[in-house]
Structures are given as structure tokens and as C-alpha cells.
Design goal:
Residues 4-73 form the DUF6429 domain. With 79 residues, the chain is mainly α. Helices cover 46% and strands 8% of the residues. It has helices spanning 5-16, 32-40, 58-72; strands at residues 25-27, 53-55.
Length: 79
């Protein structure tokens, strides 16, 4: 199976938005390879530490919110 890791990474970044707390922290309960790639892209701080959450960079926070809205928010209906 040929997995599109960029698409997986974007989906995980969007899902990190669901667990945001303390402004820019999110629970890091996703695959370590994905988390490392997000770190390499500058979306999150280094995920390798004892904390159960990871800090999203300013860029990561913006992109996480954008991807979340793109993939998971229904368009509002005008009545």
C-alpha cells in the first residue's frame, strides 16, 4: 500500500485542533512518525519529551485550524 504521508500528516494536524488547550497545546496521542514529520515541517515543537501534550507553533496553530475547518466543519446553511 502506497500511503500519502503528507495527507496523513495534514489529517493529524487538523485533529490536533480538537484537543487544543492552554492556547497552543494539544495531546500528542498520534503516531510518532507523523509527530516527527510535523516537527520537521515546523508545525509543532519537539514532541520527544515527558509531557503528554505538544506545543503547536504559530504556523502550526494557524494551519491546524484551517485544516480542521476545511475537513470537519459543515458549511452553514442560509435560511
Amino acid at each position: 500500500m502506497d500511503i500519502d504521508t503528507a495527507a496523513v500528516d495534514d489529517a493529524v494536524l487538523a485533529l490536533l485542533y480538537l484537543t487544543l488547550h492552554d492556547y497552543n497545546r494539544a495531546w500528542k496521542s498520534f503516531d510518532w512518525d507523523v509527530m516527527n514529520r510535523l516537527h520537521e515541517r515546523g508545525m509543532i515543537d519537539d514532541p520527544v519529551n515527558k509531557a503528554k501534550s505538544v506545543v503547536l507553533t504559530d504556523q502550526g496553530l494557524r494551519e491546524s485550524g484551517r485544516l480542521f475547518r476545511q475537513h470537519f466543519v459543515r458549511a452553514s446553511r442560509k435560511e
